[in-house]
Design a protein that fits this description.
- By secondary structure, this protein is of the alpha/beta class.
- 37% of the residues lie in helices and 19% in strands.
- The relative contact order is 0.05.
- It comes from Rhizophagus clarus.
- InterPro entries: LRR_dom_sf (IPR032675).
- This is F-box domain-containing protein.
Length: 417
């Protein structure tokens, strides 16, 4: 009988209290234990959803959480993605009072739960919020209670039950602004629900910024507005995914840094975006330590690629995408990469409509003979345009077989050791 399994499992005495050694409490632990105990039943059951939500599984999960919470002192990391009332279990105050990292799934955790957490946990360094789809007052209270919050992440989702799917949580933005002197890392994924970007201007010590804004005109315009007015002098990592032209604003932001940026990745679905060259020029002039770059290239921007390679001598990875322009600059680009690439540059990704002559292609690959370990990815937007021919592929394979290029892709053909 399935009902006997939890009792049999927890009735066994242990020679040592292994549970007390745990410093992290993640959902994966619960899944692993439940699978271990109910493995045969899960394989036999046709409908896994019914099994996973059965009373037996829920009871087992509850007992596991009770065991960990009663035995563990000072858990450092908690992933709360369960409807179990964790804070009501015995010794919860002792267990969670020293939390440093907290992941919360708002699909399971409500505002009242967060108010309770705010009374217990005030030393969080890292906070991740998933399924943020409506205003949650308890969340603002939790953030406001923290004394040294350094990293915060939001994954916002559309609230399908709401008449209006666009929400501005002004109170949350105000609370985040109050933590501007401590927050050094921000990740924000925005769909139709959006946190007001006004707090960005308060994050004066930000080092790591990642924002993904979906196809929402109002959100994109607001992001552009506050990026221009923000100042992140210590910024090291920048990743922005947007739908409007934002290159100019990002260039202005980079100019105000101290020159310690190591990584810049920009993504856009707007193939008519302007000022891609301005961003390349700014990176070239203000990011001497940069190691990873992913951005876009227009034919008139080639001059900035040359200066970029000459000035950024620590560059390891370079990814350049075409902004839907048909001018053929393939050979010129390969020539620049051949002449000016720093020895550290071993990962190159190029995509677009560009053509590459056999001579330029082979000359570029030959330039890596001394360095080897080149990871090269060349793709084209139209597989029928024959810009990459069988002759290109055969030459590529020769250099791959010699070990000059590794883990690479040419026109969708993977080459990997």
């Amino acid at each position: 009988m399935i009902s006997n399994y939890p009792h049999q499992f927890f009735s066994k005495s242990l020679t040592f209290n292994y549970v007390s050694l745990y410093k992290s409490l993640h959902t994966a632990i619960m899944h692993d234990i439940k699978y271990l105990i109910f493995k045969e039943e899960i394989f036999k059951e046709k409908n896994l959803v019914d099994v996973n939500h059965s009373g037996q599984m829920n009871l087992l999960e509850q007992e596991i959480y009770k065991l960990f919470i009663s035995q563990c002192k000072n858990i450092k990391e908690l992933e709360w993605s369960t409807s179990q009332p964790l804070l009501s279990f015995p010794r919860a105050l002792t267990c969670f009072s020293q939390l440093h990292s907290l992941n919360i799934d708002l699909y399971y955790v409500n505002s009242d739960n967060l108010y309770e957490v705010a009374q217990i946990c005030i030393y969080l360094n890292k906070l991740k919020i998933y399924n943020y789809s409506k205003k949650v007052p308890g969340l603002s209270s939790l953030i406001d209670a923290q004394r040294n919050l350094k990293s915060i992440s939001f994954d916002t989702q559309r609230d399908l039950s709401s008449v209006s799917s666009y929400i501005k949580d002004e109170e949350l933005s105000k609370v985040l602004a109050k933590k501007g002197s401590t927050i050094t890392k921000l990740y924000l994924y925005c769909s139709d629900i959006i946190i007001t970007f006004s707090f960005l201007t308060s994050l004066i010590n930000l080092k790591d910024l990642s924002i993904n804004v979906e196809d929402n005109y109002v959100a994109n315009e607001e992001l552009r507005k506050y990026l221009v007015n923000s100042n992140f002098p210590d910024l090291q990592y920048l990743e922005i995914n947007f739908h409007l032209s934002c290159f100019k604003e990002l260039a202005m932001l980079i100019k105000k840094t101290k020159g310690n940026i190591l990584r810049v990745f920009i993504y856009t679905f707007n193939k008519t975006a302007e000022n891609s060259g301005m961003l390349l020029e700014t990176i070239s002039n203000h990011c001497p330590k940069i190691e990873y770059i992913g951005t876009y290239l227009r034919p008139k921007d080639l001059i900035y690629v040359e200066s970029l390679l000459m000035n950024c001598r620590n560059l390891i990875s370079l990814s350049l995408d075409n902004l839907n322009e048909t001018d053929n600059i393939g050979d010129e680009l390969l020539d620049i990469l051949t002449k000016y690439s720093p020895k550290s540059l071993t990962h190159i990704s190029i995509s677009g409509h560009w053509k590459y002559s056999i001579v330029a292609f082979k000359k570029f690959l030959e330039s890596y003979r001394e360095r080897k370990s080149l990871e090269l990815c060349i793709t084209v937007d139209d597989l029928d345009n024959h810009h990459v021919t069988n002759e290109h592929i055969n030459i590529f394979k020769e250099y791959y077989d010699e070990g000059i290029v590794v883990n690479s892709e040419l026109l969708g053909i993977m080459f990997s050791y």
